Amino acid sequence: MSAPVIGVLALQGDVREHLDALTAAGADARSVRRPAELDAVEGLVIPGGESTTMSKLAVLFGMLEPLRTRVRTGMPVYGTCAGLIMLAEKILDPRSGQETVGGIDMIVRRNAFGRQNESFEAAVEVAGVAGGPVEGVFIRAPWVESVGAGVEVLAEYGGHVVAVRQGAALATSFHPELTGDHRLHRFFTDMVRSAR
């Protein structure tokens, strides 16, 4: 079976790190900046970065509506940190004009774990990921305030939801791409394979 073709939304954020992690997880990883590049992938990672900037760039590059359409029609998607915010149906404290792709029935709070200088690493048990806890890097990380009935909570940290899945959409508050542990990328790569 051929390697699944998985894109990384390359507008802003941890693009190279995700490309490396996906390649290590057995995917054919590619940068995605334009609608035609989005059409060529089977799944997509929306990386960490700055969610307000990412939202504005998605509009500027003509990507927001194509992203919404692909996610709505079942393309597997994985959002980390800012990517989790981009996949939320609602943001509690959005910046002016901030839009999301949607896809996961959740309400999120931006920068919930604190400012940049309050960033930290923590071991996080993620349901469905074998081999013990994953190392989560939390950088100005959001958390999930609430989820709808169709959302599976995969992990909590400090009493807050930090990993969720709804159908073909996966999201984490933290950055697994910064740790060298590729199990979550392998988990997502398997989701893309099974969606074929």
Verbal overview:
By secondary structure, the chain is an alpha/beta fold. Helix content is 27%, strand content 31%. It contains six helices and twelve strands. It has helices at 15-24, 35-39, 51-60, 64-72, 82-87, 183-194; strands spanning 5-9, 28-32, 43-46, 77-80, 88-91, 104-109, 120-124, 134-138, 143-147, 152-157, 160-166, 169-172. The strands form three sheets. A seven-stranded mixed sheet has the order 2-1-3-4-12-11-10. The protein has a three-stranded mixed sheet with strand order 5-6-9. A two-stranded antiparallel sheet has the order 7-8. Helix 1 links the parallel strand 1 and strand 2. The longest helix is centred in the C-terminal third of the chain and has 12 residues, at 183-194. It is globular.
Order of helices and strands: EHEHEHHEHEEEEEEEEH
Task: Trace the largest sheet across and list its strands.
Answer: 2-1-3-4-12-11-10
Helical stretch count? 6
Terminal residue distance: 11 Å
The proportion of strand residues reads 25-35%
Structural class: alpha/beta
**Approximate shape:** globular
User: Any low-confidence stretches, pLDDT <50, length ≥5?
Assistant: none
Mean pLDDT comes to 96
Q: Rg, please?
A: 15 Å
Give the biggest beta sheet: 7 strands, mixed
What is the helical fraction, as a range of percent? Answer: 25-40%
Structure summary, number of beta strands = 12
